[in-house]
Design goal:
Elements lengths: L12 H9 L9 E2 L11 H9 L15 H15 L12 E4 L2 H12 L10 E6 L3 H9 L3 E6 L15 H5 L1 E7 L11 H14 L2 E5 L14 H8 L6 E6 H4 L8 E5 L1 H14 L5 H11 L3 H21 L13 E5 L3 H12 L1 E2 L1 E2 L19 E5 L4 H16 L4
Parallel strand pairs: 1-10, 3-4, 3-5, 5-6, 6-7
Antiparallel strand pairs: 2-8, 7-8, 9-12, 11-12
Helix pairs in contact: 2-11, 3-11, 4-5, 4-10, 7-8, 12-14, 13-14
The structure holds pyridoxal-5'-phosphate.
The site of pyridoxal-5'-phosphate has 14 residues, from helix 4.
């Protein structure tokens, strides 16, 4: 006996990638650029902060709402980052710590998807391509996923306003990723305001996945908290997810937060008391120190920018290269993502991810998968190794005969 909804899930992209590359020997100096796991050295500050924590704190079950210190650090960070009016974000009512944003993004569907909405099966809106957790969350909670194109034609962002009103009326939630994984596009403040208005009009929850918010090229991306402040009506129908994984290059720390609608935060806390992964108290203390420091984040951005400079020099306008406004992925149009992935592994020793594994075909024709022509390349290694790998990739892709 098992939950047959599982049958609706596709294999996770990294399993599909392992199957695709099985039996292929990598060419020279293998480098994994398929996974968005930052390899920059974590800040010294982390070791210092962990060193200051009390041994006795490991002897405590962590409280679901975390510590006041952690929530205060997050609220102060968000206030400054988004210029929020004093008192707009209340660290007691609007913030919940989570052990990284991934599990919380998944659990959000348990929180927000009702058995029925307006007497019909609920939907969950998501961009296509998308972070795969969104799809798993929708399917495992009995909602119908609605894939909204996020292609070059839409500036790589979903147009939720263009979704059929009947689908909007039964929408329980909409995932929005800004900066977007995999395309690196950033939603403007106006777009965020529009989506929030839509969420309030059709009474669904906007799930704003902002975990790449601090990895940007020139201008800091707007956020949904900021859009709420600009609109009025508080934080109704909005939940924002963020974490230190990318900002501070500590994906292993599992430190993040959810912020937004006080009513939903209270319900989320109730749900998480039953089965949410919580952050240990010493981790909360160290994570609070990281939220309070911006110097290491600026260093981090500087390194990503230098790698983007290299990528721009190496690729020029080839393979649809563009400089992403946020995040650390290249989204390259290589014609056939799977064929290019195999060739890059075999000849250049570079492991990338076929874009089709991050998207869904919208008709029976596999070419209707908006990611299938692309590969995603994570610029997570040091500058030299990244530049060397990109140079090998350029060479290999230039001789691509698919
Ligand atoms: C779009 C997106 N959202 C959320 C996450 C989850 O990150 P974390 O759980 O480390 O916060 C990731 C991780 O790669 C991601 O790419």
């Amino acid at each position: 006996m098992y939950n047959t909804r599982l049958d609706g899930l596709t294999e996770y992209p990294f399993q599909r990638l392992a199957a695709l590359l099985a039996g292929i020997e990598p060419g020279t100096a293998p480098l994994v650029m398929s996974i968005g796991e930052p390899q920059h050295t974590p800040p010294d500050l982390l070791a210092k902060a962990l060193g200051r924590t009390a041994l006795a704190d490991w002897g405590k079950y962590p409280p679901t709402p975390g510590t006041p210190d952690y929530r205060t650090a997050v609220a102060a960070w968000a206030d400054t980052r988004y210029g929020l009016p004093a008192g707009f974000l209340d660290s007691e009512r609007h913030i919940l710590p989570v052990a990284g944003s991934r599990e919380a993004l998944f659990m959000a569907a348990q929180l927000c998807v009702p058995p029925q909405k307006n007497g019909r099966a609920p939907t969950v809106l998501m961009p296509n391509p998308f972070y795969q957790v969104y799809f798993g969350a929708a399917v495992m909670n009995g909602a119908e996923p609605i894939f909204v194109p996020a292609t070059k034609a839409t500036d790589f962002l979903p147009d939720y306003g263009g979704v059929a009103p009947s689908d909007l009326d039964r929408a329980a939630m909409a995932y929005l990723c800004t900066p977007a994984n995999p395309q690196g596009t950033v939603a403007s403040l106006d777009l965020l305001k529009d989506v929030i208005r839509l969420a309030r009009k059709h009474d669904f929850v906007l799930i704003s996945d902002e975990c790449y918010s601090e990895i940007y090229d020139t201008a800091p991306p707007a956020g949904a908290l900021q859009a709420c402040a600009a609109l009025g009506e508080g934080l109704k129908n909005v939940l924002v997810f963020n974490s230190l994984s990318k900002r501070s290059s500590v994906p292993g720390l599992r430190a993040g937060f959810v912020a937004g609608d006080a009513d939903l935060i209270a319900k989320f806390q109730k749900l998480r008391a039953h089965g949410g992964a919580v952050q240990p108290v010493p981790v909360l203390a160290a994570a609070a120190a990281l939220w309070r420091n911006e110097d290491h984040v600026e260093d981090n951005r500087r390194l990503y920018r230098a790698k983007l400079d290299d990528a721009a020099r190496i690729f020029g306008k080839d393979f649809g290269f563009y400089r992403p406004a946020g995040g650390f992925f290249l989204w390259l149009d290589v014609g056939d993502g799977e064929a290019a992935t195999k060739k890059l592994w075999r000849e250049a020793g570079v492991k990338v991810l076929p874009g089709g594994y991050l998207a869904r075909a919208v008709t029976n024709d596999p070419r209707s998968n908006p990611g299938s022509a692309y590969i995603r390349v994570a610029l997570v290694h040091d500058r030299q190794r990244t530049a060397d790998a990109l140079t090998r990739m350029k060479h290999t892709l230039s001789s691509l005969s698919l």
